[in-house]
Amino acid sequence: MIDLLNNIIPSTLEIYATLFRSSLFNEYVENVFRIWTFALRWKRKNYNKDPLMFLSDLFYWNDNNHPFLNVIKNHLTSFNEYYVENTHSRIRANTSKNTTADNIIKQAYIIMDHDPVFKDTYAKTRRYPYNATTLDFLYKKTTLFLLQYFQDVFHNCGKSIPILNKKTTENAKKINLQKKAPPKNSTNKTSTKKTSTKKTPTKASAKASKKKSPEIYQLATLNEEVDLRYLPTAYSTSHPLHHELCDCCGLPLSNDNSMVYICSHGYHVACYNKKCKYCKEYYKRGIFENVNSFLKRIEKGENKLTKEDLDDDENDIEEGVDEVSEEVEEALDTSSKLAAEIYNIEHW
Ligand SMILES: [Zn+2]
Ligand SMILES: [Zn+2]
């Protein structure tokens, strides 16, 4: 709850609407990092790299006294991605998951060529659908819902539990079936460990159940089983929290000398030392792994991109399907086109 209300909701609401649009550069950058931590935890394939690229650019500009740093600092709002995002959404709406890269590119050309909607995006006037009375009603309805919901959360404190040895609901069914087979079965964590070391069929699965923390949790108020990525960062780290105990010294926490942070780890004031050491490790590892994976991806994609660039230069969209069979022919064609283009510069 603390993670949701003090971390996720404010970050996602403020990053663009407040920080970006108010040109609060430092706060914006801090929030970019914060949002990266969500993407890391949620295991998002691209967003767990994208903010790191932006931050890497900033550090580079900073280290090299690059003038671009001041440009972006002083004119943050000019770097508006609205057109990109808007076009991206429209391309997505017009293509399916399985569309090939070439077809997506073609579709984008079509969208941009016949484009009355794009131009009219801002010019459209729509009547606002709510009046003051409706808004007041909705405000009260929402407040009532939240009050009742928070009350449930309060009453269910401590009732949400991890479901051990359960990776997904489907896997869980299988595991449950397997579990029923042997007569001796225990839900206790330590004895499960012992059983798995002795009896599980493969070494790998024994290792997994030993090392990995639970991946599924039963949330009491929602009455749902959720993947750990929906929970605060602490659950994803090597050291999941211990309720009401200090995550540093292991002694009980009390209201006057300790605090539970947005990651859900709790520390005595004296034990905290200005950072959560487990989450810091988790983020450091996340940066390292994603930067490496991104670099690998760039290296792998480099040749492919160059080839696509060439194809784009020498073929119209309609002709893109035709294959140029011989490299010599390809090179000649490019050369003549290049010569024509250079000649055309005079007539621009
Ligand atoms: Zn402590
Ligand atoms: Zn933490």
Structure description:
Keywords: Coiled coil. Residues 174-211 are annotated as: Disordered. Residues 191-201 have a biased composition (Basic residues). The protein has helices at residues 2-20, 25-41, 50-63, 67-74, 82-94, 101-113, 116-120, 132-155, 169-180, 189-199, 203-211, 269-272, 277-314, 327-344, and strands spanning 161-163, 216-219, 224-227, 258-260, 266-268. The strands form two sheets. A three-stranded antiparallel sheet has the order 1-2-3, with no helix packed on it. Strands 4-5 form a two-stranded antiparallel ribbon. Helices cover 59% and strands 5% of the residues. The chain is mainly alpha-helical and 348 residues long. Among the domains are: 2-120, no CATH class; 232-299, no CATH class.
Task: Name the bound molecules.
Answer: zinc ion
String of helices and strands = HHHHHHHHEHHHEEEEHHH
Main sheet: strands, sense, barrel: 3 strands, antiparallel
Distance between the termini: 61 Å
Multimeric status of the protein: single chain
Shape: extended
Q: Total helix count?
A: 14
Strand content range: under 5%
Region (Disordered): 174-211
Coiled coil: 307-341
Keywords: Coiled coil
Biased composition (Basic residues): 191-201
